[in-house]
Design brief:
Elements: E1 2-5, E2 8-13, H1 19-40, E3 48-54, E4 61-64, E5 67-71, H2 72-75, H3 84-99, H4 115-133, H5 139-154
Parallel strand pairs: 2-3, 3-5
Antiparallel strand pairs: 1-2, 4-5
Length: about 170
């Protein structure tokens, strides 16, 4: 499926049997990209933005300038049949990955040791963008629970420091 808004052509590539489940992703993608342009006063630099649904994509989702690759369940949902929880999750993932077009691609940290800056800001922006497009999902109500869960993980004995020493690209782990 494809559409265009503000001069940016967007396409959702997906397994052939899922065209109805790609419509939600396209609508969210068109609206959140336009919202970020207006919010940040910075035009998206390309004339295209593609999203690709892949079965069992290990990372869940990964942004690149001009294309985001998703595990199919993180991108695809049926606007009429999917549960609110699934629609909230898909909206947040799309908003998160699209925010990386600005925070991670156009503006990026000096080295991998500071990856937390990109991820931390995208984790916040997913709620800003997601709520703007779908205020009826009450995403800010879930923000508290998400941040509380993060603080619990951070307080555990298994946590690690925010800035990790990275000397070589092979030191980076998902």
């Amino acid at each position: 499926v494809e559409g265009s808004m503000n001069g940016v052509n967007q396409r959702i590539y997906f397994p052939i049997q899922n065209s109805k489940r790609a419509t939600f992703a396209l609508d969210m993608s068109l609206k959140v990209l336009t919202f970020y342009e207006k919010l940040l006063h910075l035009k998206y630099p390309l004339r295209k933005m593609y999203s690709l649904a892949v079965n069992d994509f290990k990372a869940g989702a990964m942004e690149n300038l001009g294309m985001v690759t998703y595990r199919d369940i993180r991108l695809m949902c049926d606007e009429h049949k999917s549960t609110l929880d699934i629609k909230q999750h898909v909206a947040l993932v799309i908003a998160h990955e699209f925010s990386h077009q600005w925070f991670g691609n156009m503006v990026t940290m000096d080295w991998w040791s500071d990856i937390w800056l990109n991820e931390g800001f995208a984790a916040f922006m997913e709620f800003v963008g997601g709520d703007h497009v779908h205020p009826e999902y009450h995403l800010w109500d879930t923000f508290y629970f998400e941040t509380h869960r993060a603080m619990q993980r951070d307080a555990s004995a298994e946590t690690h420091q925010i800035v990790l020493k990275v000397e070589d690209p092979t030191d980076v782990r998902a």
